[in-house]
Sequence to fold (568 residues):
Amino acid sequence: MQVELVERAKRGDRDAFASIAAASSDRCYALAYRILRDPHRAQDAAQQALLGAWRDLPTLRDVERFDAWLHRLVVNACYVEARSERRWVAKVRVLRAEPETGDIARGVAARDELEAAFRQLSPEHRAVVVLHHHLGYQLTEIAETLGIPAGTARSRLHHAVKQLRAALDANEATAVGERMA
Amino acid sequence: MNRTSDLFDDRIADWLETDPTAAPPQVLETVLAAMPQISQRRSVPWSLPRFASARRLGLVLALLVLGALLVALGGLIVGPPPAPSPAETTFTSPVYGYTVRYPAGWTVVPGKRQILASVLPCALCEEPDNIWVVPNDVAITIAGSALPAGSTLESWTTSVTERMPAKYSFGSCVTGQEPVTVGGEPGTLTVYDCAVLADATVLWITVVHGGEGWHLVWTDLPNVDPAAIRPKFDAFLATFTFGSAPLATASVLPSVAPPPSTEAPAASLTPALPAGLYGAWYHPAPAFMTFYPAGDPYCLDVLHTQLDCALWHPVGQVKENAIATVDGTVLSMAWKSGFCTGVTSTYRLNLAGDSLDLTELPGGCEGGSYSLTRAGTGGTPTGPPEP
Fold:
């Protein structure tokens, strides 16, 4: 069904593309939000990606790969959005949740640390984390979607996860210290 | 407690799972409202809507005339170039000396200086001539330089194709290779179709002429069939003639896995930045900004530029590279990797001894201004910690 719609949209059928956009907007926004961590920027990125898809659709050679192609457009739109930020704005320091005792509070604090660590990642590293851990893409699929070698995808994922793990470990060490105090 | 990788992966996945999944209705509304005003790209590159209809028609007719000429002569022309048609413009390269004709509607951006043999040209670089078939999208890039003695077409082609993966960080994505003739010289056409090049279709011709290594590169839109490009490229190449003056002395060609380079900067590459700017500067982020002089192996090997370059290295984060030029007190940084890739930032340069202030001017990446101290002075570290 989607292949037929993509073929029609590729030939300039606006109704067909409207159907595709309606079916894809949530997915585009969800992907963009997870990379950018900002609802307004995610909205802009999703819109740019969908409009870019309409504009460039005739150049898509393999309509079967529309989904992966659209994901790449979303990720590229996120890169553009991220670059328009002031360089240090993204490096938000997230304050620890209060109170600092109890499992729930520690869980919230851990989430905050994860959020803070994720915001420290470059857009390129964020993208591989989201594609792998949210969409469930394997390395080869990430590489194909982002247009990077599999080795680069692997190293980006490794680096990103290592950084996120370090943040959580630091949080955990703090919690253990608090228990012993 | 020991976390397994799976548990940690689950934790990241769970965290991402709690983010919103539904787009605000404005996303779809905006797309549907804007779509009618946006023309779709055509898969044929010269018919993009950037050309006025009359010019587009003229270009198409010119190409049809050229195509008919090719058919009449039995394919790719070898020998004297055909007579110019009224719709063509003749271009003689001020830097490289060759002459070529191109159809009406194409535009030429001449190179500013001769490229080094060790540098691969690109459509946005300043060294090669760029002939834009479609502004900002489709370009023919031409450059040449003298080769080390004993170079052959085979060694030149191998040198280029083996350096491409390092330049663009991809594995081999050569989809075809065949002999061609350019300006009466034998050459090799290599076809690239690389996802990492945004699926751009690249036809890269290497030619050796009188001890000089030449590049003639057609870079086209994503996913365009190379066979669709060939008639236009061939027609263009048929008008190409080499100049009579030899090109300047070459730099040494790098090997694929180069040892630390001992290449000295070419004599023409006078460092453009103030001498006091070169070296590492410390930022309390912590981060380091390092300026390298033209010809430094870092600029040649990492940025593939023969200009000055700079490395911005926030400790523990992704390094960012830029080509650096200066005009009076304004420093320009053309970012080639990192957060601001593709953007040129300009800064008001204030260098006073071991203190450097870079005040960003509007219109760039808006990455912010920098107050830097020469690394290793005033108690600052000399460089980033070892990883």
